[in-house]
Amino acid sequence: MRFRTYERDGTAGLAVLADGRWRDLGQVSLIDLIAAGRVRDGTLANGAPEIDLATVRLLPPIPRPGKILCVGLNYVDHAAESPYKDVPGYPTFFARFTSSLIADGAPIIRPGCSPELDYEGELVAVIGKPARHVSEAAALDHVAGYAIFNDASVRDYQFLAPQWTPGKNFDGTGAFGPDFVTADELPPGAKGLMLEVFLNGQKMQSANTDDMVFPVATLVAKASEWSTLEPGDIIVTGTPAGVGFARKPQVFLQAGDRIEVRIDRLGTLSNPVANEVAGGL
Ligand code: MG
Prior knowledge:
Helix content: 10-25%
CATH architecture of the largest domain: Alpha-Beta Complex
CATH topology of the largest domain: Fumarylacetoacetate hydrolase, domain 2
Order of helices and strands: EEEHEEHEEEEEHEEHEEEEHEEE
Number of helices: 5
Structural class: mainly beta
Largest sheet: 12 strands, mixed
Strand content: 25-35%
Bound molecules: magnesium ion
Oligomer: single chain
Shape: globular
Radius of gyration: 18 Å
Low-confidence stretches: none
């Protein structure tokens, strides 16, 4: 099943796709539905009115995940183009804050303090059931579904210090959505899916999710060694080669650009780029 979270008149709601039409579930949160184990409930749309999503504002599928765990250097060719060169022996987990998230269609914000805004197309795994000390073999039982992410990064700030928190947490840089798709609609672990990124229509990244160094099951198992993963937490699984700062010449996002991340069977995450307005977004 496929869901979108939206906002209308200041209130969030949830839509589900049924028989090719979006149906309005009203003021239901996707996290609550996931925690209740109901995201594969085929009766959810029964009696729900149709909704025209063009008349509302989309939000990220989960606007405020409890945790946003991102993974760096999770594709061999991207690690090779990075300053680190080699793939580490353990996943490079880092954290994003919910305040950095934006929806499909919202502008990625190019900050006034840096010219080095870059894109990173990625697959998201959404936790369904609490996970603590789970094995790799059992890990996918704890994944409710998948989505698309653009881990837009401010490169000079990312590398000001040995850890990446500032450069990965600028407001308006974590694009997430538009759809949450339940795991049963995808291959196990969302393997074998093409992931492509287009900048103003030009292909910049192209890879297969099979190319991940640490696949979804491994990431869930490893993270659950040190943290309780909870329903609605997301794991942003890393980007392949082709990011802007590794290109010669380098390519950075400019106001007026449009950046799209496409993943097989998940859809397209599309965002324009806009300059930060002095004093806030
Ligand atoms: Mg990334």
